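job 3f2a | input accepted
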Amino acid sequence: MDKKALLTKLIIDDTLTQHRIPVHEELVIALYEDVEIAQYIDFIIDKINAKVAEKITPQDKIPPILLLLPPARDLAAEETSLPEECPLKPGQIPTHSSPMPTEKPIIHRPTAKITLSNAKVGTAFNSTLSIELNTLEITEIEAVDVPEGVGITFDHESCCLVGMPTKSGNFILVVHWSVNAIRYQDEVLLIINPDPRSLWQINEPPADSPYSKAHIDSQLILEEDIRIVGASRRGRSHEHAGTFRDDDFYIHHDNQSQWNILIVADGAGSARYSREGSRIAINTVSHYLKSQLSLENEAIKPHLETIHQWNDNSAINQVGSFFAQLFRNAAQLAINNLKNEAIHINEPVKSFSTTLLATVSLRINDELFAASFWMGDGAIAAYGPAGKVRILGIPDSGEYAGQTRFLDDSALNDAEFNRRIIIGKWKEISHLILMTDGVSDPVFETDNGLQDPNKWAAFIDEISPCLASPEHADSALAEWLNFFSAGNHDDRTLVVAW
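job 3f2a | predicted structure (498 res):
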């Protein structure tokens, strides 16, 4: 482990221990990948080097000089071997004399500090190679010896290391440089970090695990004027840990009543059987909504005319009350079934914790009516015309990343429960979208980002190729959900009606 990596490890370990933060693999990987932390570590190292340089005296910097003395002279022998000279006459100048010894100047090797950036496998690399001398003289880099097979070369014209790194590790480069026509060479460490994607393993859950669930699921409804697609896939964190997908979804179109039902659910990652919790919630709520929106249900018929006309505020409020009660009943049934399953296996009901986002919609000519229920994080949105978005609810965000609200009695009995239901009717809606936080977090990042029409426009542009061939939209969307985003490795589920 290089010095920077060791220092990073020590700081992260000490911080987590000091604040009693529960340590899990995804958190540690996220900390190591954090660019800002890496910059702070570089700053600490530079400060240490600067302080050390201040404490070193000029005498410390000069290497010791070993003086070689000539062999002892035999003066007696020299006297006998000297030629005899005639005595000088007045005014005569000696013909020879012993010259004064001269010393060659001692040239001390300058101390060089060579700096370059770290590289990453699979990412284009372009780093200036700079040399600072303690003498402050200007150097010229003549060549750099780079180990073969790492995918990096030295560009003399730009004085940069360039290329596409092909392997990770610590590599010694030999830098040939000169100053004042004197050539030197020094070694410098090049660190090539691995591609984060290569660190993730794909492991299967134990064969005897209860409540098994497919790692990837997708569904397509393609009929005249009706196009609905849903896709869900296991996140990298679950792949690495060898656990099941916690997300679930449901899509439905009733050919008689023309109502659409779209639902997504995200089981709590900390809950042991949340994968089954999301499935139970989806199945319960979808079954209830289908029965209540069918032509056989007399209770909805008085509200259909209001939904079509949409011009009487008092009647619209009654429609809102109808759907508030509809979603409350659906949530209560789901909670009851979660409790029943917990009793059957003698587990706390929190072991089945899940979010739930549900929307029912009805196309009326060029308008779309929708009623939504939002419990937890993720997103529901009606997009259109281009560049305009309506967020159909309020995400439940906590004090820290990953914290949210789950479907339970306390949420159902909350005096603010009806705020979770939104109804509306709009023209030119091109996409009705539901997603879990595995998609919303990397795409929109924050709750404010969720309100940004530009981010939604970019998102629609990104998924449009998947929807361009409707007959293959389910498989295309499931493949798109496999995109890589550093620090975002949760399950991903997306439902789109377009």
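job 3f2a | The radius of gyration is 37 Å.
job 3f2a | closed
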